[in-house]
Design brief:
- This protein is of the alpha+beta class.
- It has one domain: archaeoglobus fulgidus dsm 4304 fold (2-Layer Sandwich), CATH 3.30.2170.10.
- It is 28% helix and 28% strand.
- The protein has helices spanning 7-16, 79-93, 116-124, 183-192, 201-218; strands at residues 31-40, 45-54, 60-69, 100-103, 128-132, 149-155, 158-165, 173-179.
- The protein has an 8-stranded mixed β-sheet with strand order 3-2-1-4-5-8-7-6, with helices on both faces.
- The protein starts with 6 loop residues before the first helix and ends with a helix.
Amino acid sequence: MADKNYKKYFELQRKLSSQIILESKVGNIKYIAGVDVSYVKRVNLAFATIVVLNYKTLEIVEKKYHISQITFPYIPGLLSFREIPPILECIKKCKISPDIYICDGQGIAHPRKMGLATHLGIILNRPTIGCAKKKLVGHFTPPPLNMKSWSPLWYKGEQIGAVLRNKPRVKPIFISPGHLVDINKSIEVVRNTSTRYRLPEPTRLADKFTKELKKNYLGL
């Protein structure tokens, strides 16, 4: 359990959850962005990246990064407070305004429905989707082993997302709407931006960019 000094952040998440809109307000998608944050503890640095793609062709049209000091500790369930500040700095550098964002993290598939994608979506007032490599909360029946099959993710009697197998016989990913989008649209967008890899292209390329950035910056 987090230190008592962080209780105010849990309370803030509960308050923000009242602002979540789970109706699809996406409209026509021209540009989609993937965002990612990675850390190097020994030098106390956060490496944040954003990669903007053409939604139809999946070609990169813009990418930016921001390197900063880590200012918020790792507290389970409070990831957004750690990652949003450097992500916002990346977004400020972009000339293109994406129509929707995919985050490497959770949307409403979170104990207080306030995963990274949801929190970011509320701040930006833009549609966001959470696409995580691991489950945080909920239960599911494993989807079939064939490509792009999925099954519902449930939590406390409510469907909060989907478990999508983007690559045959490979571990699935966990999709949940963040803000201004519903579950079905979230699944559609992730499937439409997925190719032959486990992750959809926006977050896969953002993750790749982050790794390259760390390697070039620190020789990692």
